[in-house]
Amino acid sequence: MLRLKTSSKAGVTGTRKAGFRAVAGIFAAGLLLGGAVQGWAQGSVAAQQKPATVPIAGSKIALAAPVTYDNKYELFGGFNFQNFQAGQDLRKRMNLGGGEVLFTYWLPGKGWIKNLGVGADYRFDAGTTPVNPNAGTTSQSPTTNGTGINNRPLVWLNTGMLGAQYRGPKNQYVALNYHGYFGVSHGTFDKSFRNVNSNVDPFSATGLYTNRTKPMAALGGSIDFNVSKKWAVRISPDLILEHFGTETREFVGVSGGVIYRIGKR
Questions:
Q1: Residue-number span of the structural domain to which 212 is assigned
Q2: Taking the CB of the first residue and of the last residue of the chain, which one, N or C, has fewer CB atoms within 10 A?
Q3: How far is C-alpha 244 from the chain's CA centre?
């Protein structure tokens, strides 16, 4: 289980405050949307009870199937963005972009159980990061330092997590979900270490982490905008917790993509 550790560094304290403010804003927006969704749901009950067909000139045209949320499985795929700090003492953060795939199994049952799903999440993200400004003697090239390393080396994260998703207020048009995923992320920080000065430790010189696998978590929610009974568009903000360094740090991420609902419970 991840443990938050206190730090005397003002920068880390500011980071945590910003992270908690971000997730507080996410949940506040979720509560507001939840109230609106419940109002819409009550207003749409009569519409849902209308006949499934409408007679026109002696014939019948079928209306779209109602969104019942009784699917057994759910597959999400989309783009993912988040910020990150690629070294314990680097002065600047970086931005990562990539993709996300989430598979959810919705539990059978009644009451609140029917709104609970078990999810498996995979994310791949990459981006370039600034490094220590004194990472070796400046060379003649404007894009490299004295170590032979590009001043913005490439960083990769491969993240796999397991967790739960809870479906909150919903109606025919939109649904609000809450989730928490926990797992590990493998960071690759030496992709740009080519033709490096053999007398220099590139990790120490640049301030980057060494390649490692560490705990990571994503806590947040998602908003699903229904296109049909089986298809929906999702926007999902997250508070990202990672422990690549000596303490747990907080970052903000957001993903967006499409959902396909499969099967029936």
A1: 10-43+72-262
A2: N
A3: 17
